[in-house]
């Protein structure tokens, strides 16, 4: 008896609640979604740079991101003055047994070493165990720059592959990006020197 009364009352209250809901609604309105606005405002507050951010050497460089920019349409990159971004003549593709060898004097390290035309000045120095400066290793920052002390344009001594930072003026003063510089003759190098 009691159970039947309980069930009956329960059904009655449910019916009243449902009918109230459909006749008046809950009057609840969803909060406006402003997440897109917030994201756009935040993006607008970040200053733009003309070149890709250098990658963090502590995590081994950011080849994928930097490479994606390098392989892009050339947007925002140095088209003139900077050398060798275009063209396929990559000196690192020269087979070892065909590569010429040059004598490079690293003044700060106090040694003259043999560097093949298919290896960079940075790689050759690292092979000696020297802790030379670098960040991106792709010619997209200036961390690895050095100075050729023999006078004249640095491209009289090296081929830059994918140099996107040094303009003709800096190179004419002898500056080079050691991470993308392949020797074409003997010379003297001062590492850790930037324009
Ligand atoms: S390490 Fe960035 S340009 Fe050489």
TrEMBL record:
Sequence similarity: Belongs to the 2Fe2S plant-type ferredoxin family.
Molecular-function annotations in GO: 2 iron, 2 sulfur cluster binding; metal ion binding
Entry cofactors: [2Fe-2S] cluster
Biased composition (Acidic residues): 74-97
Source species: Halomarina ordinaria
InterPro entries, per database record: 2Fe-2S_ferredoxin-like_sf, 2Fe-2S_ferredoxin-type, Beta-grasp_dom_sf
Pfam families, alphabetized: Fer2
CDD domains per the UniProt record, alphabetical: fer2
Domain 2Fe-2S ferredoxin-type per the UniProt entry, residue ranges: 102-195
Spans annotated as Disordered: 45-97
Keyword Iron-sulfur part of the UniProt annotation: yes
Top-rank lineage group of the source organism: Archaea
Keywords: 2Fe-2S, Electron transport, Iron, Iron-sulfur, Metal-binding, Transport
Protein name from the UniProt record: 2Fe-2S iron-sulfur cluster-binding protein
Presence of the UniProt keyword Metal-binding in the record: yes
